[in-house]
From TrEMBL, chain A:
Recorded family membership: Belongs to the SPCS3 family.
The protein, known as: Signal peptidase complex subunit 3
Location (main, coarse): endoplasmic reticulum
Sorted UniProt keywords: Endoplasmic reticulum, Membrane, Signal-anchor, Transmembrane, Transmembrane helix
GO cellular component term of the entry, any: signal peptidase complex
Source species, domain of life: Eukaryota
Summary of the function given for this chain in its UniProt record: Essential component of the signal peptidase complex (SPC) which catalyzes the cleavage of N-terminal signal sequences from nascent proteins as they are translocated into the lumen of the endoplasmic reticulum. Essential for the SPC catalytic activity, possibly by stabilizing and positioning the active center of the complex close to the lumenal surface.
Record-level GO BP terms: signal peptide processing
Organism: Sinanodonta woodiana (Chinese pond mussel)
Pfam families: SPC22
InterPro entries, alphabetized: SPC3
Keyword Transmembrane helix set for record: yes
Membrane-spanning ranges: 12-32
TrEMBL record, chain B:
The EC number(s) this enzyme carries: 3.4.21.89
Protein name (Swiss-Prot/TrEMBL): Signal peptidase complex catalytic subunit SEC11
GO cellular component, one term: signal peptidase complex
BP-aspect Gene Ontology terms: signal peptide processing
Residues passing through the membrane, by range: 21-39
Major location (coarse): endoplasmic reticulum
Pfam families, alphabetized: Peptidase_S24
Key words, A-Z: Endoplasmic reticulum, Hydrolase, Membrane, Protease, Signal-anchor, Transmembrane, Transmembrane helix
Provenance organism: Sinanodonta woodiana (Chinese pond mussel)
Amino acid sequence: MNTFLSRLNTIFAFTLSVMAGLTFLCFLSTVFNDHKTLVSINTGKIIVKSVPDYSTSREKNDLGFVVFDVHIFNWNVKQLFLYLTAEYTTQNHKLNQVVMWDKIIRRGENAILDYRSMNTKYYFWDYGNGLKGNRNVTLTLSWNVIPNAGTLPKVMGEGSHRFAFPDEYSHHGLQ
Amino acid sequence: MGALLDFSFLDDVRRMNKRQLYYQVLNFGMIVSSALMIWKGLMVVTGSESPIVVVLSGSMEPAFFRGDLLFLTNYQEEPIRVGEIVVFKIEGRDIPIVHRVIKVHEKENGTVKFLTKGDNNSVDDRGLYAPGQLWLEKKDVVGRARGFVPYVGIVTILMNDYPKFKYMILACLGAFVLIHRE
């Protein structure tokens, strides 16, 4: 059984086993990492408007604008999906979460982030009219760790910021 | 190499007696049924109708590329939250989609509506949903991504793209298991 094909087969099978073993070790070495860091978030100007969201319906939904600062220090992970979540309660919905900004940080890229006076990346549409006068909107920064191989932990940064929307709709443009 | 050309590899089969032939066929059956059992077992443990999926599109790059493998769970008691990567089905589409949740609206009684977006797409998924569908619900979810292994599913991609390659692989594997003698 020392044909060319059987040797090729053995080498291929061995290579696969070694790679599988190494990948598993790579997974084991990071599985107990908690990927946590301190985050500080602040809001700047907050406006709420009544604007028709034509992408969903003709009804007017509340739209909030937030300018914020994020400082993150000393990351110790390889590949991340970073996102800023606004969490709030309305009359109809006990829990609302809206991602307002996100960023992909790949391995080797600058992982110390310090954004000031940044606008949100996505519009902050509510499902109905729950933003005007909402006293309790919590901003948190979370990240989803994408490993080379292994689990996909979702980690919430330690530190959040709470803000309230004004009681009146703004009739002027942003700024 | 010559073995392939003059069909001398079939000598193995000729030398087998009936008992051995039955054994090989049963062995083949065992392999197929074990694979099926493992798959169904995983379905029970993970609660997902499709516990392992292969990423078929580049819409989640650079996190997931075509051919990467995802392990899914779908425990009903675990709430759906933003940032999670879910696999969902859309009416009228055969292939499930792997995208990230970017909006969640949950009611007191637990009914939840959520919106997804691919990391690599500039807009949310409303254009991909069924006509008139604005939100996903729990019933649309096939699973949530829990584990990740790169490249392993590339064979599936090749088989999907080149059906002839699929039949060749299947034929080779079948022939090998039936003909090969331990």
